[in-house]
Design brief:
One of its GO terms (biological process) is fatty acid beta-oxidation. By secondary structure, the protein is α/β, with parallel strands linked by helices. The protein has eleven helices and ten strands.
Amino acid sequence: MSLEFLTCDIEQHVAVVTINRPPVNPLNSKVFKELVTIFNELEENSQVRVIILTGSGEKAFVAGADINEMADLDLVGMMNMNRVSREAFSKIENASKPVIAAINGLALGGGLELALACDLRICSEKAKFAFPEVGLGIIPGGGGTQRLQKIVGQGIAKELLYFGDMFDANRALELHIVNKVVPGEELLATAKQWAEKLAQKPPVALRMLKIAVNAGSNADLETGLTLEASSFANAFSTEDRKEGLKAFVEKRKPVYVGK
């Protein structure tokens, strides 16, 4: 794969995708398109079971969208950029494999939106977060107004969005925006530990879990329960289900093959 702003390393069923636009890794249309490309390729790679998404350097995960690109866009150009960003975020959110954001520094605006599209988020204790868009006369356009409130509730979401103030890693943990805070030097190792643990679990069952949770969050209870029942049936029909139950009876570690 030939990418200008992303790198991808695969080891032990785990892919580490790094956004590399130093010093603060801003998102532009090319990065969004490359994210779609890499996630499409990883989706088809049966050797990859978990994906880690991070930023290069120690200063930023992603410090927002590329303001230099946005400043020169007219309405049509901005709509086109918004279309490709939405495609990238949706591709990440709906990937069949778990996606872990390893947030190594600033996650501002589009960077925080990118993290919110991931399944799990681990951050450095030095990470900082904000939705500063209102101070620029705009609002988040990559799903921030929608995904944030599903995690923190509408009242807190409005506070963070309306004021646009920076908040630290501990506040992000308190609000459940991140799942874990670790020292910066332990960030990637911790993300890999989580990823390797997930990679040992049955891939189809994880995929069905993700479908049930993601789709169910936008549905009423009865519809959600129907989605869960369907996902349960799909997981139950797999060879991995047979292996899991057999291993339990035989008191050994199961070996899952993703079928």
